[in-house]
Structures are given as structure tokens and as C-alpha cells.
Design a protein that fits this description.
single chain, mainly beta, Neuraminidase, globular, disordered N terminus
Amino acid sequence: MPFFTAQKFQQCSEFPFQLAYKNSFPFTIMRILFLPLFLIHIIGAWLSPLLAQPRCMHLSDTLREISGLTYTTKGQLWALNDSQNPASLYLLDVQTGQIKQVIALNIPNRDWEDLASDPQGRLYLGDFGNNLNKRKDLCVFIYDPNLKTLDSILFNYADQLEFPPVKQTDWNFNCEAMIFWRDSLHIFSKNRFEGSGIVKHYVIPAQPGKYTAVIKEQMMLPHAVVTGASMHPDGRYLALCTYFIGKKWGFLPFTRCALFFFQPNQQGCFFHKKPIRQKLPKYLIARQYESVCFIQPEVCLVGNESRGPQKAALRRIRPRPN
């Protein structure tokens, strides 16, 4: 027969010295310190991906008009400038933002506005900036850094019949945001600051050719013009980068910068329910955020152009999509 039965062990589980210790001063101190130490541990684990690296990386003047970012499956961070800049791609150090390599391409930079990549590492350069809403040469260039090959996708918007539309309030054919997802390119319109606030979602094949982009869905995003897009590495949600400069009540200056997070459904739609909005740092006036990309599941980079005293920079942001 064993020395302790289960019943006897339960009855003897607390001996007098144990009970005395639990009521002792050292044990009370331990209980008081446990909660803050536990909270410090949790907060440290939550912030560690950001604290391990600088929150802000100032960029070279070469990238003073950075408008597109993408992080490839091979761990490469690529960037590009928008119009009136050389037709070049820039490979950046993900830790410092410094330029590691410049690839000059023999193609025009009419108005490059975003950059995306697929699982094979091909880069998609969105030459679809259209501030005046009158372009008929919208294009996405496809560049393979490994094979050094170059191709293109030509497209038009199915719902644009005038170049430009007669009413400026209908000028919603300027796009600055694009992702590669489910073997297609998804393009999001940038409405005018004084426009309707509607964001349109177009889809075209991610293959060379000529296509008509049809609206898949649209949503009202007041006080937000979309300037960049990135898909979470696990495909759990889409991040749209936005900023806004306007006036309240017709005279009071008003600015806003934010990321919007959208969860996709099985049909490949993002606008089926209200998004989550996360403010971005703006420091009195809105920074001209033009690009966003995930570099880790819990960390994304947002890039702002140089504007007045504000210098071009990349900022590490911990997304809060919930």
C-alpha cells in the first residue's frame, strides 16, 4: 500500500509552514511585483520588433519623391520615385533605408505611383498616375531582377468615357495603390481632396497584354485619399495608406494621415464591411505618405515624400488591424 493515498495527499497538500509562508511579508512583496513585471514582459514582447530597429529612417535626396515600396519573398526591399524622376528601381537596406543598388530601366517614367511583387520575385511598376484624368497610356511594367527581363501590361478603365470627365467631381481615374494577390493585380483609385470620397477597386491579370479594368467594388472613405497598398504576408488583410489635406467648414485647415485595414472574403472583395483605421504620425501637418509595405507579419513600413521642411523617410509601424 502506498505511503500516501490520493485522498490523504489532498488533505496534506498544505502544511503549516506553507500557510505561514503564503502570509509572510516576502510573499506579499512578490505578489505585488508580479503584475508590473508581467506587464513589462508582455509590452516588451509586443514592441520588440520595433525597438530592435530605428523607428524612422531618413532617406537620401535621391528618393525625395518616393511613391512605391515592396518587400519580396526573398527579403529584398525595393522602392521607386514618381514622375519627373529617373526611371530607376532602388534596392534598399531594410535596416537603415540606405540605397544598396540602383537599376536604371530603359522605359519611361510618365508617373510611377506604386510597386508590387509576386512570389517569384517579379516586380510590378505601376505607371498609372493620372492627376489630370486624361491619360490613355496607363501601364504596369513587369521587371524580373533575376532574369533582367522587362514586359508590360496596358489597360484602360471600363467606366471612363471622357478624358478628362467634364465635371471635376468625377475625376476619380487616378490610381496610386496596387497589390499582387491571387495571381492578379488589384488597383485602388485615389480620389481628389475635394472629390466624392469614393475609392474604387479594379482588377487586371498579372500577365503581359492589353486589358480593360472593371470595377470589382467601391467604398466611401471620407477625408482619405489612397496613395499606397500592401497585402499582409499571410493574406489576412489589406492595408491602404492615406492622407488628406483640406478645410473644415470651408476655412479651418484640416489634415489627416491613416492606414485602413480591410479583411478579404472568399470572393476577393475587401469593401464588404467597415475597415479599421489607424492614425499615422503627422506632426502638426499631414506628411505626404505615398507608400506602405509589410516587412514582417507584425511590422510595416510607410514612406513619405519630402515636402517643405519634412524630409523623405521610412517609418516602422506596428499595424493594429483589430
